[in-house]
Design a protein that fits this description.
With 76 residues, the protein is an alpha+beta fold. The chain has a single domain, classed as Macrophage Migration Inhibitory Factor, CATH 3.30.429.10. Helix content is 39%, strand content 16%. The chain has a two-stranded parallel ribbon.
Length: 76
């Protein structure tokens, strides 16, 4: 079932992460029509100095064609 992994820099509070996990769960349930018991959300904190090698290159650059929301500003 849907498992969402959010990779982010350290520093967000547990409350912020819990609120985001709740929002993601609700949206997955609404959009994909899954029950709450089918959705899981994880957070992986990655240090800023490691972001390029651990996240950008393998998860963004190498999978550009799979991204539904690409980073950066996209004008209308």
């Amino acid at each position: 079932m849907p498992h969402v992994v959010v990779k982010l820099w350290p520093g967000k509070s547990e409350q912020q992460k819990a609120r985001l996990a709740d929002a993601i769960t609700k949206d997955v349930m609404t959009v994909l029509q899954y029950g709450e018991e089918s959705v899981s959300v994880a957070f992986e904190e990655v240090a800023p100095q490691d972001w390029t090698e651990e996240v950008y290159k393998p998860d963004i650059q190498a999978k550009w064609d799979k991204l539904y929301k690409k980073p950066g500003y996209e004008p209308f």
